[in-house]
Amino acid sequence: MGQKIEKDLQRFRKIVRGQIKSNLSKYIGRGEMIGKKGNDLVSIPLPAINPPQFRYGSKGSGGVGVGPGQPGQPLTPQQGDGDPQAGDEPGGHILEVELTMQELADILGEELALPRIMPKGKKNIVSVKDKYTSIRNVGPESLRHFKRTYKQALKRQISGGVYNPILPKIIPQREDKRYRSWKEFPKPEAVACIVYMMDVSGSMTDEQKDIVRVESFWLDSWIRSHYQGIERVYIIHDAAAKEVDEHTFYHTRESGGTKISTAYDLANRIITSRYPPDEWNVYAFHFSDGDNWGDDNPKCLKLLKNELLPKLNLFGYGQVESPYGSGEFFDHIDALTATHENLITSRVPDREAILGSIKEFLSTGR
Question: At residue 237, what are phi and psi to the nearest 5 degrees?
Fold first, then answer.
């Protein structure tokens, strides 16, 4: 019975994965999963899943192609007397299915045919910590547990009737000896860092910021599936840049101008001081509507070429089109992609383009 249940469970999970993959673009575009994340589990709403089967009805009960009519006659709803009444039949049901973040990342990778990320840096090695948590009958004398050994020898003598409470003499024998033993526990280290940068000037609307939130969720899920630990840095900018927490990152809107170089300069200083590239796998993603102060473009490109790109596994620039932004910055940064393999640019005009943008960013395997 247990084997049959396990087989049915695996079949059900396979069907669920197929349902999610076939509707992945819908889930990504709507951002349905993001608000349901908790404890590394994501709850996904799916229509009720019914395996295909034959269903038999009464002969001549009607249906499409049954009854009077002429070829080409349009089908109309059934006509009847009286006012419409509330129905008494059950409707469709929505099933909430929980997936781990790892399963979600695997589905994304399968659907987009993404290559596995090849980490670099010394911090990719996870240290192992030994903990003495158990007792064994064999081991080196240096790890002998004297209290446990004494108790075992005492129990043996009492049960054998040779213990003398007036002149107690406890001599452990080989079978009495007990030794401390250890288990190896992997000690996860934050081996990767993702730096998120976003323009929060007046030209970026709430819709554009929500697109950034959805895309960042999926980028984060895929990168995190390749590392034991991960840290995140959030930077917002208009004419000035500052480091903030995640909530502030997605819910701030300013009214000033835009100087993208301030974000690149701050990101470079944070990476240099906290995440040295010889030890860390560092990723950076910048989202903007492409509106930038004209004289600032040369400074941005200089910072990218000379400071940021040599330190990063990957730099992704996503241009989220806005009705208020000029969009001219894309052409300036896109010109660098021919000479820098770790620089990827992507246009994200609307929610329908999020899936394609994710594939562009992650298709390098860096």
Answer: -155, 150
What would the pLDDT profile of 188-229 be if each residue is shown by its tens digit? 555 889 999 999 887 788 888 888 888 888 888 888 888 877
What distances in angstroms separate CA 116 from CA 73, 110, 204, 222, 223, one per listed residue?
55, 11, 33, 9, 9
Nearest in space to 97 (alpha carbons), one of 48, 52, 30: 48
Q: Which pLDDT value is given to residue 32?
A: 54
Q: At what angle do helices 354-362 and 206-224 cross, to 10 degrees?
A: 40
The answer to whether residues 157 and 163 touch, using CB atoms and an 8 Å cutoff, is yes
All domains in the chain, ordered by first residue: 1-50+94-113 (no CATH), 127-186 (no CATH), 189-362 (3.40.50.410)
Q: How does DSSP assign 221-256, residue by residue?
A: HHHHTTSS-EEEEEEEESSSEEEE-HHHHHH----S
Q: Which of 176, 211, 183 is nearest to 287 (CA)?
A: 211
Burial of 47 (0-12, 13-18, 19+ CB in 10 A): exposed
Coil, strand or helix: which one is 273? Answer: helix
Q: Would you state the pLDDT for residue 94?
A: 45
